[in-house]
Write a structure and sequence with these properties.
Helices cover about 15% and strands about 30% of the residues. The protein has an 18-stranded mixed beta sheet that branches. A two-stranded antiparallel ribbon has the order 8-9. Strand 8 and strand 9 form a beta hairpin. The chain has five helices and 20 strands. The radius of gyration is 20 Å and the shape is globular. The protein is of the alpha+beta class.
Length: about 425
């Protein structure tokens, strides 16, 4: 299994009320977080998912370029969800939450037209929200930045993210479980760790899309880290008119839409889905690097199966994604002269968020997730693995060497040590 963790999601539990809950109240929620965390090593849950061709993981591999029959490649990323609980003695306890998707190594993906993805924009400058396609954002990204001048010019090169290969983008789909209280919200950040990215030399740019807007930033693995335990990577934020805010998740049954709006969101960021309320798109756009691309390390493995918990009833439902309080300036291109790396496809990770208060998942819950995943792939004529099926001829095959060279893991760690000394 890849070492943690390229796209990760960090969840810090919060309540909507300002009331200071006593310690005895927090203990059941802590247990719920732990039970949700343990889903990825729960033998019964793993068996149910496996029968459906799915895995329950705490780290997922979301790569724009991987070598054939390998876990490494020239542009790779990992994704997970992490929950942070405040310890009574101070500090944070961080746990990785479960994600359901097709198996990591095979990495079953599909190819879709970027025009099929409808994203909300306007949040970057405080204007009324409107819909545009992913293709439009790739073609004209400056229009959707709070500070377009933060993208420095590089000679006469156009400041665009669109490449001729982008008639199709690489798409994967997953469901992410959040331990959301019966009444309240979970506050969270998508966190990305890209193994190629270093300070002042990002390997990818991310476009984070929710029902409330679209937020663009580069990944340098240096700023906005969440330092606790094994967690590493760069937190992603919502861009609220140039200010950053963490995302929030609440139960759909607790969601009260604003006056004049509908409980159903028809401004979904993906044409193939039925609602945008519980969706997040994490889009990776590969960037050219000044430094020679460096390799990746794979380590660790799946945890041993956890004991099956005492029987309980699932209360899984869709989560509604929003954003929280303002936390400071939002960083976009960070005054860098970035350029699209056309060797690699754009990758879109479609996430369906699910809320649970007790960490229990049923076979019916997993079947509903499988059906959601299948509906996304059904819109594509090209579905399969770019890793295990040889050279496929798909538009989303990355250019260049396809086989893993010797010594990449050793060089990766040397590169990481150099980056930490900067």
């Amino acid at each position: 299994m890849k070492l943690l963790l390229l796209v990760s999601l960090i969840i810090q539990v919060s309540m909507t009320s300002s009331y200071a809950f006593p310690d005895w109240f927090a203990a059941p929620y802590t247990r719920a977080v732990h039970r949700t965390r343990d889903m990825s090593s729960n033998e019964e849950v793993l068996k149910m998912a496996s029968k459906m061709g799915l895995q329950v993981l705490d780290v997922t591999w979301e790569d724009t370029g991987r070598f054939k029959n390998s876990a490494v490649g020239p542009n790779i990323s990992d994704m997970t969800i992490q929950v942070a609980l405040e310890k009574g003695t101070g500090g944070l306890e961080v746990s990785c939450m479960p994600v359901v998707r097709h198996p990591n190594f095979e990495d079953k993906t599909c190819d879709l037209d970027p025009r099929l993805f409808s994203l909300m924009v306007g949040n970057h400058d405080g204007s009324p929200l409107r819909r545009v396609s992913l293709h439009e954002i790739l073609a004209n990204p400056l229009r959707y930045l709070s500070k377009p001048d933060s993208w420095r010019r590089k000679g006469n090169l156009p400041r665009t993210l669109l490449a001729s290969r982008d008639s199709k983008v690489l798409v994967s789909t997953q469901a992410c479980f959040l331990p959301v209280p019966k009444s309240g919200k979970a506050t969270f950040n998508p966190v990305l760790f890209n193994y190629q990215s270093v300070k002042d030399d990002p390997g990818v740019l991310t476009i984070l899309a929710t029902r409330e807007g679209t937020s663009i930033t580069v990944i340098d693995n240096d700023r906005d880290a969440f330092s606790a335990g094994a967690a590493w990577g760069q937190r992603l934020f919502f861009n609220a008119n140039g200010q950053r805010a963490s995302l929030t998740g609440q139960r759909a049954s607790e969601f009260a839409p604003e006056a004049g709006s509908s409980r159903r969101d028809d401004t979904t960021p993906l044409a193939a889905s039925e609602s945008g309320l519980n969706l997040v798109l994490l889009i990776q756009v590969p960037l050219k690097q000044k430094q020679k691309p460096h390799p990746q390390f794979v380590g660790g493995g799946m945890l041993p199966p956890a004991p099956v918990a005492a029987e309980a009833v699932s209360d899984v439902e869709n989560a509604v994604i929003g954003h929280g309080d303002l936390e400071g300036p939002f960083t976009e291109v960070d005054n860098l002269a970035i350029q699209r790396d056309t060797r690699f496809p754009v990758r879109v990770t479609v996430q369906f968020y699910k809320a649970t208060s007790n960490g229990v998942v049923s076979e019916a819950d997993l079947q509903a997730i499988k059906d959601q995943i299948d509906r996304v792939y059904a819109d594509s004529q090209y579905v399969g693995s770019l890793v295990t099926e040889g050279v496929t001829g798909r538009a989303t095959e990355h250019d260049g060497r396809k086989e893993e060279p010797a010594g990449w893991w050793k060089r990766f760690w040397r590169r990481q040590a150099e980056n930490q000394r900067r």
